[in-house]
């Protein structure tokens, strides 16, 4: 039903679909609003009420806890198992497919591609039990890594850490991979925030920023963590954004701001709760994350540039092969779609 150009959702929508939309809104809303709302709330309590001690107590806690995202985080499995995440996964829906088992005797470094706008597939599959990742890969403890700025805003940082997420810094990854001899899988969205600026649906090529990304290869060699490519088919389809071709004024401004603040200032085009024309909620498009076969890596305490480059080339080739094996199944109308690796 359209009114003044806005397409509204039908009035009689099954309760299950309403729950799915609510689940996605809870996560997206927390990402955008929880931190700023908590900050404003603490400022209000401090300046305008007699409960000024509450933000002071939190500030003391915040300072004492500041290094936790780089020291393994604070995973709460009961939060990861919320039924909310099942509804979140069913909304798109998000699916998890494996090409091979992961032996708990080893540690793993999983590269997640593409970034998309908000890493919907990576978050659902590896930071929650929405797709039962612990049953798909028994004995493996997945840890999603992300920008350190995700752990700055009050209360949101605590909420996000319950997923098991940690900082994507070298120190943080060293901590996770060095804490045990096996059973840990660090998940890194390799393209990072800059890649999100190239995210547009229905393109004939998918841009991955991968050529300059070699730090994760060096860390995999250092710890002897087997490399595993993964690709979330459909990740780039759930949002659109304002047209921003490379070299345009908008894109130059976005690139500058991304380097300045870390996060990419993407002007997204999604949908709302009760209408489909605009908003911050992603569209219902299927996302299938395929986890590839592990690439064996021998521990090398101080890897040379030659070793890093060789393993990087092997990883890129395995990722491209994974994409080619599955693209016709998950992108059936676009058989000529290809990866554009920058």
Structure keywords:
342 residues; alpha/beta; two-stranded antiparallel sheet; globular
Structural summary, described in words:
The protein is of the alpha/beta class and 342 residues long. The protein is 40% helix and 16% strand. The chain has helices at residues 15-48, 53-64, 77-80, 83-91, 120-126, 133-136, 156-161, 170-178, 192-196, 215-223, 249-261, 305-330; strands spanning 2-3, 6-7, 94-98, 108-113, 141-146, 166-167, 184-189, 205-208, 226-233, 240-241, 268-269, 287-291, 338-341. The strands form four sheets. The protein has a seven-stranded mixed beta sheet with strand order 3-12-9-4-7-5-6, sandwiched between helices. Strands 1-2 form a two-stranded antiparallel sheet. The protein has a two-stranded parallel sheet with strand order 8-13. A hairpin with a 2-residue loop joins β1 and β2. α1 (15-48) crosses α4 (83-91). The termini are far apart. It holds the Pfam family DAGAT. It is a multi-pass membrane protein. Belongs to the diacylglycerol acyltransferase family. Its EC number is 2.3.1.-.
Can you describe this structure in just a few lines?
The chain has 342 residues and is of the alpha/beta class.
Summarize the SSE layout with pairings:
Elements: E1 2-3, E2 6-7, H1 15-48, H2 53-64, H3 77-80, H4 83-91, E3 94-98, E4 108-113, H5 120-126, H6 133-136, E5 141-146, H7 156-161, E6 166-167, H8 170-178, E7 184-189, H9 192-196, E8 205-208, H10 215-223, E9 226-233, E10 240-241, H11 249-261, E11 268-269, E12 287-291, H12 305-330, E13 338-341
Parallel strand pairs: 3-12, 4-7, 4-9, 5-6, 5-7, 8-13
Antiparallel strand pairs: 1-2, 9-12, 10-11
Helix pairs in contact: 1-2, 1-4
